[in-house]
Amino acid sequence: MLMQLNLKDFAVVSASELGFSPGFTVVTGETGAGKSLLVDALLCLTGARADSGMVRHGAQRAELSAEFSLNDAPQALAWLTTQEYDEQQECIIRRVIRADGGSKAWINGRSATLSQLAELGACLLEIHGQHEQHNLLERNKQMDLLDEFAQHGGLRKQLQQAYREWSAIKQELNELQARGEVADQILYLRHQLSELQLQPLEPEFIQDSLAKHKRHSQSTQLIASCTAALALLSDDDNASAISQLRASINQLSRWQSSEPVLVEVIGLLESADIQIKEASGQLEHWQQHIELDEHDSQQLDGQIAHWHELSRKHRVPIEQLQKKAQLIEQQALDLSYASTRVISLQQSLQETQASWLSIATLLSQQRTDSAQSLALSVTGFMAELGMSGGTFSVQFSPNESDNPTAYGTERCEFLVSANPGQPARALRKVASGGELARISLAIEVATLGLDPTPSMIFDEVDSGIGGAVAEVVGQKLRALGAQCQVLCVTHLAQVASLGHQHYRVFKRVQDDNTESLVAILEPQQRIEEIARMIGGEALSEQSRAHAEHMLKSAQM
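Above: the chain's sequence. Below: its structure in token form.
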């Protein structure tokens, strides 16, 4: 049950703190005073979209909060437990809307998303506005309302679950079948795989081969350089380094006895001779090992050319060819099971459709009985709402396709005849706004109180009616207030007089600034407000007496 609603800088409300009681609460006020702002605030607190226009002019942000008792809201309590919010016997929803249009929300002090506000709000409030009349024109909404009236919630959940399962299987089956001929695809993938596997694909082996190929490509030049160096160092030609060095040593050796300093020079030359001979030997040995194997070189060229061709073909670096081969192998393996999977899915699709059809058939049978009950109930309320002789009925038509849907095997259409002797027509084709308002209200009244939502909000659903019909509407709402909390924004004195609690919304201009205020009315104030609603601003003793009589009659 809604216990408290606090508004700050919301639209034209600067600040307001409202407490609510069980039973039937009415909200009244002059046209344009902002009566529906309370409903707008509750919509925002239960997940509706917000914009900068909801922030009072000149303010940085609007702040809204609502406190609910959970003693009569087991669904809300269960939701809070599931979502791991702090569950107590009370729940506080808070929302801040910034002047730039952004907003934040909290549930019991913890951050919450708009979808979470909507889920929790659906467990706490049921809001009926003039837009409900337009929703009732939609055929799917009509089916929802019929199932709600018949309390088919359990069967509808089973039906929707079966439909979701069927849809998931159908989607997978379509995706597999969209691939085309599986056998041809497998053959193509295996051809690609065999082509890839002609050469080793390990990244390490490829790197080693590339390095080896690089050395091979340089081998000819290396061999030529080595041959030239050996010729310069140790060739039999007298011009080689070793020959020149030996000649130098022989020339100086004749003089070392007379010139002792030459002994050291000759020693250095002989040491150089030894080192050059050792270097020549190592170079000759290394040259022998880098000599090319023509067959090995050609094989390596072909191997690397094959890798580069595959790299271009599959659009991957050659180091990733092994991963590409593994992917193709897995794709081929998956496809090899595709035929079997298609057969399995087709069987599952038939089984799921049969299960769906069984539930849908049972639901269809129950809908037929429920439709008759709803028709009798709505027709009765239509008479009470001044449409005596009018009738209401529910017409079913089979779906155009045998495929499962979330609604069952049929569609429904609400048909009405507003006056005796007139043929029944689809509700969506009713031309008169006043007739549509009363018929919609009759449907809503017939289906009220069928769910465990503890609080119901009505925003001027009594538009287009008046007189004795308005009194009937007020009595229905007051009777509903005995079952749950009811809050109604109304412009009708007949409805307002039947409230257990009465709030008045009015505008005040102060320092060239307009704001809306909300005040709870005491008994005498209620007489004045009801009198205003009856006779306008020019109150008379007669209108006051009439208002007092209406209020006293409501207490009987």
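The chain has a mean pLDDT of 85.
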